[in-house]
Amino acid sequence: MSASNGIRGGLTNYGDKDFAAYLRRSFARSMGLSGEMLEKPIVGIAMTPSGFNNCHRSMPDLVEAVSRGVLAAGALPRPFPTISLGEVFLNPTSMVYRNLMSMDTEEMIRAQPMDAVVLIGGCDKTVPAQLMGAVSANVPAVQLVTGPMMTGRHRGERLGACTDCRRFWGKYRAGEVTDEEIGDIEGRLATTSGTCAVMGTASTMACIAETIGMSLPGTAAIPAVHSDRMVAAERSGRLAVELISNPRRPSEIVTWKSVENAFRVLMAVSGSTNAIVHLTAIAGRLGIRIDQDRLNRISDETPVLVDLKPVGEGYMEDFFAAGGVGAVLREIRHLLHLDTVDVTGQTLGERLSGDADWVDRRVIRPFEDPVSREGGLITLTGNIAPCGAIFKRAAATPGLFETEARAVVFDGLEDLANRVDDPDLDIEANDIMVLKNAGPVAAGMPEAGYLPIPKKLARQGVKDLVRISDARMSGTAFGTIVLHMAPEAAVGGPLAAVRDGDRIRLSVSEKRIDLLVDEAEITRRLAERIPPAPAGRGYRGLYSRTVLQADEGCDFDFLTHNGSPKEN
Ligand code: FES
Ligand code: MG
């Protein structure tokens, strides 16, 4: 093991250094640590338990298992808290706090005396925040996830948060499920510790963390309650100790090649739209940017191989049993950069060199027989989204891919809430619903892009219609939904110009979304726009003033690499 200062590491450079070391040791002693332990190198454990985060319920067990691994490998584990983001408990949206958590993580790694760090996250925004913080702090780091939930049961059917939450709520709104049954379902959707049971944002980010090389190979999909999850934690602790004497820093692991590999896997697992924003932000911390044409090329070349909800049938427990991320990587091996290095020091080519284990082909399909020939996500551009928009074609209705229709416009979240179920709302099944002012600056970019089907249409049996916005949607949602339109309406993006009754054209084959209104008229309408009031005080004020648009990952402008990401 390399020379480490143990608890004396990172002492400030002013005053009497010996006194500072003496003081620090003395205070460390008050935690009941022997002098011998204080000589050891230190592995920090960024832990994120919270009474407001169900997905991290198993955190105490994981911290204990990581600590065991660290101790067994000869170092001193030091768990420390950072803020925790429980997706469904945060207002106005957890997205607002991702950057705050990334700053907390980065600064606490930097400020405290640790030689390496294990980061334990799980719920949607936590893993992106930890990876953003870790790559910026650039101390040797291992990402560990809490793992997905197991499914519940209802009348002989498996249920998993949160695709089935939406499915049953949709039925309830349409009057097909009673009050009593929806109450029963509520208690059966999320029944164990862990993250959402489908390929939503949390699971997608776990797959990305493994592919990019920051997590131990084979660990992304292990269920939260499986004993292997604890073993993964123990091994992550051991690995962090190895990284002290043989450092591989996050900046050596997260490269444009490993970022491209992660985008490939995002397509092959048909992952969450949110993952594009998060991966863009993580890469942006190192000045890496994958442009939109490249992203579309990756999507067009990479088939969807994984048959999981919200796009397909299975749940994360099936994905784990079927072979997990390793099995997917093998299928798309010929498309990957094989010379990337993961946190263990092996190249991706080395990882994939052995024979594949048994793979359940019902869940992870062979490259030649995919779920669909093309990747799940694409970017669109057009005159209402000059900096792009995201479309999850794998979760959309192909019959709506080429739509030209009348716009029904909602001016913001409040307007949507007030009018969407109004029986007098002027809307028909083949209209396009438009939501403005739900982007990063206006509203923190909530998951409002999954606009509810107006009740009057739902009752007529309408299951889907084209919906467009500058918001996000949950990774567990589905529908013909155009999201992340940039620039957003609140900063003067052309989405602000759309009015009721305008014609809009969506063309998935051309990867375009356009407002069929004269450019001069669009310019005139935008000039008439009344800009929103300037941002107020505190963190929310900082957020509004410095958040970047969706195509740049919604990071703060002062946190990206040298202030702005560069194209690859
Ligand atoms: Fe935490 Fe879905 S609510 S992962
Ligand atoms: Mg989610």
Automatic annotation (TrEMBL):
<feature type="domain" description="Dihydroxy-acid/6-phosphogluconate dehydratase C-terminal">
    <location>
        <begin position="363"/>
        <end position="554"/>
    </location>
</feature>
<feature type="domain" description="Dihydroxy-acid/6-phosphogluconate dehydratase N-terminal">
    <location>
        <begin position="40"/>
        <end position="350"/>
    </location>
</feature>
<dbReference type="InterPro" id="IPR042096">
    <property type="entry name" value="Dihydro-acid_dehy_C"/>
</dbReference>
<dbReference type="InterPro" id="IPR000581">
    <property type="entry name" value="ILV_EDD_N"/>
</dbReference>
<keyword id="KW-0408">Iron</keyword>
<dbReference type="Pfam" id="PF24877">
    <property type="entry name" value="ILV_EDD_C"/>
</dbReference>
<dbReference type="InterPro" id="IPR052352">
    <property type="entry name" value="Sugar_Degrad_Dehydratases"/>
</dbReference>
<keyword id="KW-0479">Metal-binding</keyword>
<comment type="similarity">
    <text>Belongs to the IlvD/Edd family.</text>
</comment>
<keyword id="KW-0411">Iron-sulfur</keyword>
<dbReference type="Pfam" id="PF00920">
    <property type="entry name" value="ILVD_EDD_N"/>
</dbReference>
<dbReference type="InterPro" id="IPR037237">
    <property type="entry name" value="IlvD/EDD_N"/>
</dbReference>
<keyword id="KW-0456">Lyase</keyword>
<protein>
    <submittedName>
        <fullName>Dihydroxy-acid dehydratase</fullName>
    </submittedName>
</protein>
<dbReference type="InterPro" id="IPR056740">
    <property type="entry name" value="ILV_EDD_C"/>
</dbReference>
<dbReference type="InterPro" id="IPR020558">
    <property type="entry name" value="DiOHA_6PGluconate_deHydtase_CS"/>
</dbReference>
